[in-house]
Amino acid sequence: MNTVLTKKKEDLIQYFKEVCEDVGKTTSFSIRFFKEVIRPPYEMKEFIRQCYSIGYKSLPLVTITGFIMGLVLTLQSRPTLAKFGAESWLPSMVALSLIREIAPVITALICAGKVSSGIGAELGSMKVTEQIDAMEVSAINPFKYLVVTRILATTLMIPLLVFYADAIGILGGYMGINIHSEVGLYRYLAEVLESLKFVDIFPATIKTFFFGFFIGMIGCYKGFNAANGTESVGKAANSAVVTASLSIFIIDMIAVQLTDLFL
């Protein structure tokens, strides 16, 4: 019995050490990013290519998800509001729910699964096949070329994808309302815009930049520091998805608390 307890205690201590070590390495990785991002030369071509890969190629998935979010939210909320005779509040409720919480979080989670895992697997495979070492030998800064460009691209593209998901979700809500009743598009959009305030849009926009930054940072960190062996590529991709998804929920929780406290 004592042997089992001792073993569990040692495993717990080892796990705690690994977590602390991982946090320290991630912090050092982030500090290096902020140093490299302001130091020339700037890899603009690679940055634009990453923006295209991360942003444009994610549009079909974000379009489908955003439309379904707005449609389902409308159809699920309508019966409840109808019981209280508040169906006229449906456009406002759908727009506020999408813009403040649902669209940013769901879009970020989708990108965490698609983008962060892709970055982790790509950089992990480059690490395993020693392509990163070859870049260093060729006098190319692999951190600036591979890491900085991807993190900047995710930081810029995720907010744009969220704005796009907001618009598509609101359109999906319009389609959902017109399944049971006829509402003009102009009237629907007027009610949506009338319900929105600065305090609804600004905090939701700011946190999407943090979502994008952490999605790119975690994916790059896991891939750039992958161990030797092909198995590490899959582990890097899987770990990037899990960690990025968890960070999104933590950031969202902090953002909600700060918004409630200061605004």
UniProtKB/TrEMBL annotation:
Q: Where are the transmembrane segments?
A: 54-73, 151-177, 201-224, 236-258
What's one GO-annotated cellular component?
A: ATP-binding cassette (ABC) transporter complex
Q: Does the keyword Transmembrane apply?
A: yes
The UniProt entry lists membrane topology as:
Multi-pass membrane protein
Q: Which Pfam families match?
A: MlaE (PF02405)
State where the protein is found.
Membrane
What keywords appear on the UniProt entry? Answer: Membrane, Transmembrane, Transmembrane helix, Transport
Molecular function as annotated in GO = phospholipid transporter activity
In terms of superkingdom, the source organism counts as Bacteria
Family annotation (InterPro entries): ABC_MlaE_roteobac (IPR003453), Permease_MalE (IPR030802)
Please name the PANTHER family in this protein's record. Answer: ABC TRANSPORTER PERMEASE PROTEIN-RELATED, PROTEIN TRIGALACTOSYLDIACYLGLYCEROL 1, CHLOROPLASTIC
The family annotation for this protein states:
Belongs to the MlaE permease family.
Q: State the name under which the record lists this protein.
A: Phospholipid/cholesterol/gamma-HCH transport system permease protein
Q: To which species is this protein native? A: Flavobacterium segetis
